[in-house]
Amino acid sequence: MVNARKCEFASSVYGCMHNFVYTDIVASFMLQKTVSELNESIPKLEFDIYEEIGIPNSTVAVNFLQPSGASNWTNVIFSVVPYPKYSTMSSTWLSILRSHFMSLVVQQSTLQLTESLFGNSSFFEVLKFPGGITIIPPQAAFLVQKPYASFNFTLNFPIDKVQDKTNELKDQMRAGLLLDTNEILYIKLTNLEGSTVAPPTVVRSSIILEVGNHQPSPPRMKQLAQTIANSSSGNLGLNHTVFGKLPDIANINQHLSRLGVGRLFYRIAVLFHADLSDQFLCLSLQFE
């Protein structure tokens, strides 16, 4: 029931995106209140939202209140706009706001609204954010460690759909890439337009050693590079009925050079030709 409500919510807010051509920052969430109940308290709702996420030279405007399929649930769509009208929101504060939004999306925090009027908020999503948005699903990794391999690929699904299947995606990739037990797969989900409800999603993947900061042996790095390149035609181990099918490999350009004593650098650029587009999608892999 919760997943069905979330899917319905994401679909409805995605359908509203064309209404925000001139608004840079748009987000949404759900409240278990009717539209008529919320209509009476819009100024207070805007104030509460601003108290939670407001940044200097900005204000919050509630743009739409959409009833969901369940009669007592409402989608609240709001924007953060410059205030006064022609003022500028600094890049530093926009970065802080983006981080706050990211935390709300992965439910590390929630909007604290006046409970007696609005109850508890849920299903926070971002419709637009300048410079894109990156969501980091909760996962185990030692972030101070430097990944020894990184590669990106694109799925034709929105972040919210991919995020719900993070464990399934990582398990399938681990099996498809034949990762060792001490190799951790760590992912970040990016939408370049700054939306968590609109496709596509760039899956930024890194492989980190579970213990220690030492690099794996050159033969292991080369083996993994070849496995990733070969696995691309096998959909990187992903079930195509769940995550879609990555396009076939159009070209592989592999370069190997020595950068220093005992230090090898591998780079593989794999170009995929999209079945439904004349453009190329690129999966890039780097070992350092």
Automatic annotation (TrEMBL):
One Pfam short name: DUF7036
Signal peptide: none
Domain DUF7036: 28-119, 152-244
PANTHER family in UniProt: F20B24.21, OS05G0373500 PROTEIN
Species per Swiss-Prot/TrEMBL record: Aegilops tauschii
Name of the protein in question: DUF7036 domain-containing protein
Highest taxon of the lineage: Eukaryota
InterPro entries, sorted: DUF7036
